[in-house]
Amino acid sequence: MHSPPQNPHDLSRHDLPGILATIEDEVRARFDAREGKVADYIPALASVPRERFGMAIATLDGDVYSVGDAQVPFSIQSISKVHTLTLALDAAGDALWKRVGREPSGDPFNSLVQLEHECGIPRNPFINAGALVVADVLLSHYDDPEAALLAFMRERSGNAEVGRDEEIWTSERRSGYRNIALANFIRSFGNIENEVDAVLDLYFFQCALRMNCVDLARSVRYLAGRGVCPGTGTRVTSIERSTRINAVMMTCGTYDAAGEFAFHVGLPAKSGVGGGIVAVVPNVLSLCVWSPPLDDKGNSLLGAYALHRFTRMTGLSVF
Ligand code: GLN
Question: What is the rounded CA–CA span in Å between residue 85 and residue 157?
Fold first, then answer.
C-alpha cells in the first residue's frame, strides 16, 4: 500500500485522502496516554485534550485534504514565527539578518545562555529570543502590528475568524517569566528598540492566535509556491526570501531536534508548543499536523511521526 511513485511531485499519482486516513489510523494505534507531555508551563495549555489528532494538506492546485480534528482550532504558539519573519523581512529587508542569525542554536527554544556571549544577537528567528527581535522590528515598522499580523493570518488562511485566544494570552502574559527575562536581556544589548512590554505583548499575541490545521496548512502555501499564494496569485514574498525562510525552517524550525527532523521527515517545518507543526513541500503543497503531547524538545511527538509517515508513503521529502 502507498509505495512512493516514480515521480512523487505529480500529485495525481497519490491517493492523498487514503494516505491521510492510513496515517490517522497508525497514529491513533500508536497513541499512548503516558507518552509525551502536553505543555503546562503556560497553564491554560495544560487543559487541551491530549488525544486530539488532526492533519491537513493544501496543494498548490488549491485542493485541501484533511482528517481527524483538522477543523478544531488550537493555540498556534511558535508556528507564528514563520509568519512574523515573513512580515519582518518585508519591513526591514536583509538588514534584519544583522540583528538575528540563521544558525541552529542547539539549545532549548527558550534558552538564555548564548545571548550573553553573542551580545544579544539571537542565533535564529525561530527561537524565542529571535522572535522577540522580529516582534520589535514589526513594532517599529507598523502603527498597529497586531492588526497587520491578524490581517496577514486571515488573508493567508482564508479564514476571517482567526483571532486571539484570550485565556492563553492572559495565561502566558502572567507566567512568561523566561520571555520577560529574554526581552529585557536583549534590550540591555540594544537589540530591542521598543518598550519591552510592547514587544512582549506582541509576541504573546502572535503565540495566542487560534487556528486549525486547515487554516495553518493554507497559511504557509506561499512557501510552497515560491512566495506566491496560489488561488489569489498574490505575491507574499520574493522567491529568494521564500527559499530562505524554508532553509531556516529546515535547519532551525524544530529547535534542537532539527537534525532528527531532517533525517526522519526531510521537510522544512515549524513547530509550536500547542502541538502543531507546519511543513512545506516546495513547489507542491504545504501541510499541518496537530497532536498536543510533546517530546522533550517541545515538538509534537505524534505530529513528527505523522510527517515521517507522510514523506515515507509519498516520497515527497526534499532529499
Ligand atoms: N509561547 C511559547 C513560549 O514563548 C512559544 C514556544 C513554542 O511554541 N515553542 O514559550
Answer: 17
